[in-house]
Design brief:
197 residues; two-stranded antiparallel ribbon; two-stranded antiparallel sheet; 7 helices; 46% helix; 13% strand
């Protein structure tokens, strides 16, 4: 099997920080909840789709070696990130259980930076564990920085009809995770005005 042949879970990739991208693998289609990480293959496909954004490089062999345990870890981390995003978007305190889950995932796999000098100086990331587990630990660390830093104040829930995704507001007027949600929201408002007696 080739990594291009992996079926994806259909989760949207919106260009948000990786923790929110992972959190957004629990999404909705026409208001119906969907899970973009149901299987190990779904996690492998998601990692394939975001691997250019990862500090630790995943090879095709790494992606093809994703296990059911990795998928369970991915879903657990995703669910903790979603709880933290919901709290941040609502201006509430973080759920202590979600914080503990995030901390546990961050310390699962040791990793470090290494200097390579050939063919030119480059900093790479090394790991003592499986690369997929290390990537999930790195995403957990990124989530810590997101939810403890100034960007936490910009984490928003999409206001699109039936949407359950989160995003980082990059402009003061942004209300939706994507142009598609914005179009649906405007159409719904227009339809509501037209239907008023």
């Amino acid at each position: 099997m080739d990594v291009a042949d992996l079926i994806d879970g259909g989760a949207p990739i919106l260009g948000e920080p990786l923790p929110l991208e992972l959190g957004n693998t629990a999404y909705a289609v026409r208001g119906r909840p969907r899970d973009g990480l149901q299987t190990a293959e779904h996690l492998a496909a998601w990692l394939r789709d975001v691997r250019t954004r990862l500090e630790l490089r995943l090879t095709d062999a790494d992606l093809l070696a994703v296990t059911d345990d990795d998928a369970v870890s991915g879903r657990e981390l995703r669910d903790a990130i979603r709880l933290l995003a919901v709290a941040a978007a609502a201006g509430q305190s973080a759920d202590p259980g979600a914080v503990e889950t995030l901390n546990r995932h961050a310390r699962k796999t040791p990793r470090w930076h290494e200097l390579r000098i050939a063919p030119e100086p480059l900093v790479t990331v090394g790991t003592a564990g499986r690369p997929v587990a290390a990537v999930l630990a790195m995403i957990a660390e990124e989530a810590m920085h997101l939810f403890a830093g100034p960007l936490r104040l910009e984490v928003c829930a999409c206001q699109g009809p039936g949407c359950v995704l989160h995003f980082v507001r990059d402009t003061p007027r942004r209300e939706w995770c994507s142009p598609g949600c914005g179009n649906r929201a405007r159409a719904a408002r227009h339809y509501a005005k037209v239907r008023k007696p």
